Write a sequence for this structure.
């Protein structure tokens, strides 16, 4: 569900805008960056914070 | 104020604007858009929302849509099940028959205790269990050329799951007259077809089939393997979802012929006929 909610938030942004997602260690912290990259967005990981620049 | 001082003021504004433009972009505060779907909707529809082409606005388009399903039998069952599950906001189900025991092998909206019940009501009851967030309306009537225009009025999309050519032509005519988009389907034996129609823009059902084929048989005459209707109904539902969400292009100016005995599909191109009695310009 975390990636679905992240995807919907990204849909609301314009290209080039950044979404910051704080995630607990575990599955979501692995899945969200991977799914965001697969969707073509730029991803930077800082500890438990994922910064996603919308494609 | 003199003309000179006014001109200097203008120059100052232009210079300030140029200076601002020369500065590196400062991050502007972004006003977040409010979420359009509630938490329950996000969870219910999460698997389709995961699709890259299926956005929040796709889901809103479905929620706002009003779709009429003509027939609650072999094709109407999968069509209505998938559209209700996907979150089409208002579903109308039209059928004048009662559930018979011989329906049950291919009509998954109806169960043995429903035998003798009106199909429209039986279907609507199941669909309300499937998705209580949508509105389902049951119409116990046989669609013909006299009542079709009134039923179709105000609909965003009609899906014809009827089992006679007379009904198909009546629905096609009414949809062409009203400019309501239509998805046609038919199945018998081991084969079926599906076709999407945008009235006055793409070929209509009568453009493809100007007259009913002679000697055509119904399911009660020729028989049908249950899953054949499931496949064709599922294709109709898929076309509806593609069409309503805009997530993928629908099948227009063509029909898909599906032979499930040989597992061959054939896409047959169809053009609008200028002299078509349903959608022609004459």
């Amino acid at each position: 569900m975390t990636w679905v909610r992240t995807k919907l938030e990204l849909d609301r942004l314009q290209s080039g805008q950044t979404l910051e997602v704080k995630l607990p260690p575990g599955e979501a912290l692995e899945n969200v960056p991977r799914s965001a990259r697969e969707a073509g967005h730029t991803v930077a990981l800082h500890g438990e914070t994922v910064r996603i620049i919308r494609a | 104020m003199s003309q000179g001082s006014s001109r200097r003021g203008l120059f100052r504004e232009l210079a300030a604007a140029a200076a601002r433009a020369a500065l590196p972009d400062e991050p502007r505060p972004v006003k977040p858009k409010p979420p359009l779907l509630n938490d329950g909707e996000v969870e219910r529809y999460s698997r389709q929302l995961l699709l890259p082409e299926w956005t929040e606005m796709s889901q809103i388009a479905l929620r706002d849509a009003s779709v009429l399903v003509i027939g609650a039998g072999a094709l109407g069952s999968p069509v209505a099940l998938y559209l209700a599950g996907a979150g089409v906001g208002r579903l109308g189900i039209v059928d004048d028959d009662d559930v018979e025991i011989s329906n049950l092998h291919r009509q998954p909206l109806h169960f043995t205790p429903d035998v003798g019940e009106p199909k429209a009501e039986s279907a609507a009851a199941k669909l309300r269990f499937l998705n209580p967030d949508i509105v389902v309306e049951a119409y116990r009537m046989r669609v013909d050329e006299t009542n079709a225009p009134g039923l179709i009025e105000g609909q965003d999309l009609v899906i014809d799951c009827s089992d006679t050519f007379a009904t198909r032509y009546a629905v096609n005519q009414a949809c062409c007259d009203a400019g309501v988009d239509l998805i046609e389907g038919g199945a018998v034996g081991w084969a079926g077809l599906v076709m999407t129609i945008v009235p006055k823009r793409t070929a209509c059902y009568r453009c493809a089939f100007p007259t009913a084929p002679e000697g055509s048989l119904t399911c009660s005459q020729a028989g049908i393997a249950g899953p054949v209707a499931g496949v064709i109904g599922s294709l109709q539902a898929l076309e509806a979802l593609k069409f309503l969400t805009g997530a993928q292009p629908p099948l227009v100016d063509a029909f898909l012929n599906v032979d499930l005995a040989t597992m061959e599909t054939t896409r047959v191109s169809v053009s609008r006929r200028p002299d078509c009695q349903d959608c022609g310009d004459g």
Q: What stands out?
A: The longest strand of chain B covers residues 181-188. The CA atoms of residues 27 and 210 of chain B lie 62 Å apart. The interface with chain A takes residues 30, 32-33, 35, 37, 42-43, 46, 49-50, 52, 55-57 of chain B (CB under 8 Å).
